[in-house]
Every structure is written in C-alpha cells, then in structure tokens.
Amino acid sequence: MRYLAVLIVALWPALLAAAEWEDHQTFGDTEASAPLRILSSTDTSFFAPIIAAFVARQPGVAVEYLVTGTADLDARFRDAPAAYDVVISSAMDLQLKLANDGFAAPLDMPEHPDRAQWHKRLFGFTTEPAAIVVNKELFADLPLPRSRQDLIEVLRANPERFTGKVGTYDVRDSGLGYLFATQDARSSETFWRLMEVMGRLDARLYCCSGEMIDDLATGRLAVAYNVLGSYAEARATEAGALTVILPSEFPTAMMRTALISRAAPQPEVAKAFLRHLIQMQAGGGDAGFPLPPLATSNDATGGTSISLDPALMTYLDRMKRQMFIQEWENAIVQQD
Amino acid sequence: MTAEVHVHGSLRRRLGLILTGGAAVLAVILYLAVRTFAAQIAQQGQDSILNASVTSILDTAVLRDGEVLLDFPYASLSMLGTSADDRVFYAIHADDRLLSGYDSLPAPGASQDSLPRFRTTDHGGEPVRMATDARTLIGAQGQTTVTVSVAQTQDALSETLNAISRRVALFGIGFFALSTALALWAAATTSRQLRRLTTSVTRRGPQDLRPVAQPVPSEMGPLVASLNTLMGRLDHALTRSEEFLAEAAHRVRTPLATVRAYAETTLQRVDNPDNRKALHAMIRAIDESSRAASQLLDHAMVTFRADTLTREDLELSELLRDLVDRMRPVADMKDITLSLRAEGPAVLHGDAILLQNALRNLIDNALKYAPAETRVEVAVRSEGAGPVVTVIDEGPGFDAAEIDTLATRFVRGKAMGHTIGSGLGLTIVQAVVLAHGATMTLSNTAEGGACVTLQF
Ligand SMILES: Nc1ncnc2c1ncn2[C@@H]1O[C@H](COP(=O)(O)OP(=O)(O)OP(=O)(O)O)[C@@H](O)[C@H]1O
Ligand SMILES: [Mg+2]
Q: Which SUPFAM superfamilies match (chain A) (predicted)?
C-alpha cells in the first residue's frame, strides 16, 4: 500500500503534465457541437489572429487551440491521432516523421511552393531563423557578436561576466532545440566548440523559447543561443534591451509546418483551415499574418532553410539520437 | 455484253485490313514492349539508389564495447528524395534483433545468399520497394551480423511510368495512323493497276482481240498472259469458223447445183410420164436441200455475228432500194409488182449484212406466198424512237392459229402449199431483230394479206 502511494506521488507530475496544456483556448461559435481541435507548439498570441479570421469566415465553426511543447505534442498525437484535426509544430523532423509514418491526410495545394510541402501532406508556412539574442545592457562595453565564432570569443574572454548567464535549448526536452542543434552540428564543428564554451560557463537549459526570452528580458541571461528569431523580435520591441542577431556564417532557418490528421474527426473543416492558413501566409504581413511568411527564395534570410526531406528522420533514429545526446551532454552538461 | 460475275470479297479491302490490322498489332506490341522496358529501367534506377542508401548506412556499422553502433550520415536518407516525396522506411537489425528503425518492415530473414536483395512488398497498405544488405562485424565477444533494409514507396516511379506510357501510347497511335494511311495508299495503288487493265479491256471494240500490250506489274503478268492466250485462241477460232461457214456453204451448194443441172437436162430427154414425175420429185428434193443448206448456213452466220455486231450508220432506204432492185427479177417472173416506199431519211446504226439478210427473207416470203399478179409493198419511215420497215403483200396472210409459232426454227405454216422452204426464214429475221434491240410483229392487212413490221 505504501509502495503504491509512493509510486503515485512519484508519477504525479507526469500524470498532471499529461492532462495539462501550456495554453488551451476556444474560438468562434461556442454553441458548435464539435470544435476543430488544433494541436500546436506555437504560442496562442501568434495564432489568435489567424483563427479569428478563420471563424469569422466560417460561421458555426468553433476552434479549440491546444498548445504544448514539440516533443510532447508528437507523443500525444501518436497516442491519439483521432483526437486532433490539425497538428502544427516547429519541429520539422518530428512532423515529417508523422507524415512519413502515415499519420497525415493528403491535401492538394498546387499553388503552394513545392519546397514548402512534402508528399501533399505536410505544409510549411513560415520561415523562421534561429538567432543569437543578447541583452545589450549586460554586454555593456563589449562588442556584440555577429557570428558563432564572435560569440565563442567573447564568451571565452569574459568568463566572469557570462558564467550562469548563457542559455540554450535543452535538446533532450525540446524537439525544436534538437532540430536546430542537429542541423548546426551537421553544418559546422563550431557548434560543438560553442557548446563546450557554454558548458564551461554553466549554461542554463530551457525547454522553450518563451522562458529563455523572459529571462533575457529580466537580465537573468545575457545571451541565448538558437532562440526563435520571430519570438525574440516580438519581445525585442517591448523590451528595448534585447537584440536579435542572425549568425552571419550559416543562419539556420526552419519552417513551421502543419498537417491534417488522417483520423481527423472533422476533415473538411481541417482542410478549410489549412487552406485559410496557407492563403493568409501568402498574403504576408500586409494581410495580417502574424508570423514571418515563407521566404520567397532561400537567400532571402541570407542562409539556408532546413528542407523538407526524408533525411530529417536521420537524427530521430534511436541510435543516432542516443549518440548525439551523449555527445551534447559531454559538451554542455558534464563540464565541472 | 455484261456477264454475271460471282464476286466474293475485295482485294483492296482485304489488303487494307491486313495492313492496318498488322499495324495495330505492331503498335500494341511496341507499346507493351517499351512500357515493360521502361518499367525495368525505372525499377533498376530505384534499386540502385536504395542499394546506395543501404550501403552508406551499413558502412558506418561498428562494434564498440560489444555494442553495435551505426552513425549513418544525413545523405543516407537524403539521397532518397524524389519528386513525388516518396515515403521512406528503414530497419537496422543486429542478429535479427531490431536496433532501430521501423519494426513494421518485414524481418530480414536468415538467408544471406544473394545479397543485396531487392523485393517489392506491402507496407501499411502501400507497395514499397525494399533493398536489404548485411555485414558481419567481428569483435571480442564473437561475431554479429548487421542487416540494413531501406524501403521506399513507388509514387515517383509510377508517375514516371505513367508519363512514359502516355508518351509511348501517343507514339503508338501516331505509328498506327501513319501505317493506316500507308496501307490505304498501298491498297489503292494496287487496285488501280487492276482497274486500269479492266478499263482498257472493256473499252475495246467487239472485234478487237489483240493481246494486251500495256505494261503491267509482275504479279498480274500471268493473268494478262493467259488472258492474251485466251483471246488469241478465241480470235483464231472465230476466223476459223467464219472460213468454215463460207467453205461449207460452197461445198454443199456446188455439188447440188451440178446434180440439179443434170436432172434438168435428163428431164428434157425423157418422155415417159412416170420417169418425168420421178425427175420432178428429184429436182424438188434437190431444191429443198439446197434451200435448207443455204438457210442453215445463213442462220449459223446470223447467230455467230449477233454476238459481235459490226455496227455502222446505215441509210435504210438505200439498203432497201438495193435489195428490191435485186429481187425484182424474181417478182417479175410471177408478175408481182414489187415497190418500195421510202419517206424521208431513216438512219440506223446496225450491221448491214445481217439487216440485208433479214429483209431479203421477208421479201422472199412475200414473193413466195402471194399469188401472181399482185402487189408487194416494202415501206420504210422514221417514227419517234427509230425507223420502221413494213413488208405487205396481197396473199393469204398468216393463219391466226399459227402466228405465234412461225418464228420458231423449222416451223412452216399450213398454207405453204407447194412452195419450197426450210422454216428458218422468220427465225433468222427474229435473231437479227433481237440483236439490234428491235421487235418484229406479224399481222394481216384488212384485205387479208400478210404484214410484217420491224420496229427499230
Ligand atoms: N407473206 C406470207 N404470207 C403467208 N404466209 C407466210 C408469209 N410468210 C411466211 N408465211 C408462213 O410462215 C411460215 C414460215 O415462214 P418462213 O419464212 O420461216 O419459212 P419458209 O418460208 O417456209 O421457208 P424458208 O426458210 O425457205 O423461208 C411459212 O411456211 C408460211 O406458212
Ligand atoms: Mg421463208
């Protein structure tokens, strides 16, 4: 009996997490019998205008917007694909694997650029670079880094100022963090050196961009690496101390992607929503699209977008993931 | 002269059918062959990429502390990107234990002969092509076999195949259309040769039995050769029978004339009434034979010529005047007034010899059956459709009961009396009239005399 109680107490946070959402809101006709259930990793503030425009055009439709982290989102959707209609995530690799594993329903969207869709099932609708975000006040007299190399040098030169004040994603928890890290590692050895430097400075690890930016704004962090530029830009306007820097050597940009569940309870509404989303995206900022729309070509952001490609599944391989996390932990965690 | 021909099928249609049918079969074979070939090549292409992917994964297999590790590169899966975004599945096994990847892929199985192995299987209700290869790693604890399978759906492949099929189908249809046009042209050209020969033979005159001289294709050579031989034989036979007729007439009449002359001379010298009677009977029999011989020969000649009329434009009144003048001595002997009444021109396109023969028979009858000191009138006039010739006498006329049968061969009327005849005269007239597409009508005049009307 006591053993069982211990087990319940031990498992409680996990059970709580399973039931809870980072955010959970309903839009549109509250009378509607069955709402369109959107499972998303994007903050509600970004999606509210998109959904509002959708329900305004479709009377009698309600939309339930459920927010959670990318890794959790993937797990929840795989558990119950029939419980959700649309899945939106910034973790391209997890999304592509969902589509590859047959969880997504096809949708014809010939006007959508080819590189932003995969197998007629997965649709990219933003281009968002990973950025270095710094708090200018804490940098004070130091020069702002332009690249990863600059960042390594400035961190190495000023350990006393930056110890405990650098942050990045915990790739073990965050799907997006893992995607950015693996793509960085694939591009250059600089990534590993940066991780080692950050590890030596007692880097703080985050599950989500939001908290990282909060801590930057309050001054708990002086610099954060691989933060979603779009989120940071939004906060930079209100907290004047924040500066978003796109690393000049090889900026990594991801596409936020959406898919329709093959077991969607409301497939028609889901299709209409995806068309609406893509249409709004095509209109860009002028049409009230709150996220950075698709880059018209790859060099618009000065770097390469991660492409929708079956190779995204490489680092999701159990062995590859184990090896990568091992190496990452060696670099950033066990430095003391 | 058109003869009934038993027609069965058409060479031109048969030729066209065989050629277009052949083209259709060829087009279908071409389509199937190219499609199969294209499918093979496309499959080989996919297989080689799958194999490259398997190899690049397998190459990274290492044994570290007794554990199998595969740190395969990004390119291993990246190289599998296709235009149709085909789904990709892989599985890595170490001694039949799944290390990572999809457990839904079929297990590698024990057989390791013939590696790499390719097969098409079903994965999640969709056909996939799968490549499998294996490698044996040797470590301190013994050896481990690592098996890697990579599978891919075939959407891009079937898209490519469909595109190729469409193009090949178009090509096949074009090939067929072209062949059909060629076939029709060939059939038309071939049958044109036949038609040209037919026209040249049909256009010939009735007496033209010359061999065909114009060049013909070699296939038609034997036909034309036998046609030429046939016509040659026909020509020869015709010439021979004409000669034979003339010869036969001569040969029969001459000895009869001699016999008759002797009989006449003998009659002068014989006084015994019995002997005289016998001689009279003899002379009469000779006359009958002579008449029969010459009428038979005339009849044969008429029948023979009737098939191939030698037509020319004739002025009938002239022809009749000639004839009447020649018959007048015979009429004079019986004190018969033989007259000709010709009203205006009466032109006829016909065979002069035959017409002369027919009209002579009619006048001969009139002179023969009418009593002495009467009149025989021959009249010709042009009336609507063509000339009309009538021969009228003042004799007993035709017997109403016999009138329909008199034109039959060897039939003589009851009223013939002692006149000499063979019963072929009207038969000859009928044959000539038929050959000219005309009609003969036998009737009697109001006074009772005979009236024969020929309406051309
Ligand atoms: N003008 C005529 N008047 C009366 N009877 C005629 C006259 N012409 C022909 N006939 C009758 O028709 C019969 C057939 O005539 P046709 O000319 O065919 O034979 P034919 O005169 O007897 O012999 P031939 O062959 O020598 O002329 C005659 O036997 C005769 O009885
Ligand atoms: Mg007669």
A: Periplasmic binding protein-like II
Which residues line ion ligand 2, judged by CB < 5 Å? B 365, 421, 425
φ and ψ of B139, to 5 deg: -125, -170
Could you tell me how many CB contacts below 8 A there are between chain A and chain B? 57
Inter-residue contact B60 to B72 (CB < 8 Å): yes
Residues B454 and B432: their CA atoms lie apart, in Å, by 11
- Strand ranges in B166-317 using DSSP code E only, listed in sequence order: 312-315
Residue B33 near ligand 1, beta carbon < 6 Å: no
Domain total of chain A: 2
Q: Which atom of ligand 1 is nearest to the CA of B415?
A: 31
Structure tokens at B76: 């291993």
pLDDT of residue B206: 66
Q: Tell me what pLDDT residue B10 has.
A: 84
Q: Read out DSSP for B183-231? A: HHHHHHHHHHHHHHHHHHHHTS-TT--PPP-S---GGGHHHHHHHHHHH
What does pTM read for this prediction?
0.69
CA distance B396 to B447: 9
Q: Which pLDDT band holds residue B321 (cuts at 50, 70, 90)?
A: very high
Give ipTM to 2 decimals: 0.88
Which pair of structure tokens corresponds to residue B247?
A: 């010869």
- Chain-centre distance for alpha carbon B81: 67
Whether B2 is in a domain gets the answer no
- Check B101 against A314: CB less than 8 A apart: no
Tell me the C-alpha distance between A301 and A46, whole Å: 21
Cα(B50)–Cα(A172) distance, rounded to whole angstroms? 31
A116-127 confidence digits (pLDDT tens): 999 999 999 999
Is the pLDDT assigned to residue B52 strictly greater than 80? yes
β-strand pairing of A304-305 with A252-254: parallel
Handedness of CA A189, A190, A195, A196 (dihedral sign): positive
**A100, A308, A319 ranked by CB distance to B70: nearest:** A319
- Structure confidence at residue A6 (pLDDT): 47
Q: Under an 8 A CB cutoff, do B86 and A119 touch?
A: yes
Range of the domain at A92: 23-127+255-305
| A98 within some domain | yes
Q: What's the alpha-carbon Rg for chain A, to the nearest Å?
A: 20
Mutation target for B interface from A314, A318, A321: give the one with most B CBs within 10 A: A314
Residue A113 lies in a domain: yes
Specify if A312 maps to a domain.
Answer: no
pLDDT tens by residue, B419-450: 889 999 999 999 999 999 899 999 999 999 99
Query: Hey, are the CB atoms on A318 and B100 less than 8 Å from each other?
Result: yes
Q: Is B81 on the interface with A (CB under 8 A)?
A: yes
At B156, phi and psi to the nearest 5? -65, -40
Helices within B59-146 (DSSP H only): 75-78
What digits encode the pLDDT tens for the residues A16-49? 444 689 899 999 877 777 899 999 999 999 999 9
Tokens of residue A285, six digits: 């900022």
pLDDT tens-digit profile of A264-298? 999 999 999 999 999 999 988 888 898 888 887 65
At residue B193 the predicted structure's pLDDT band, cuts being 50, 70 and 90, is confident
Cβ atoms of A242 and A213 within 8 Å: the answer is yes
Domain edge (last residue) among B265, B283, B308: B308
Q: Which of B74, B80, B26, B72 is nearest to B50 (CA)?
A: B80
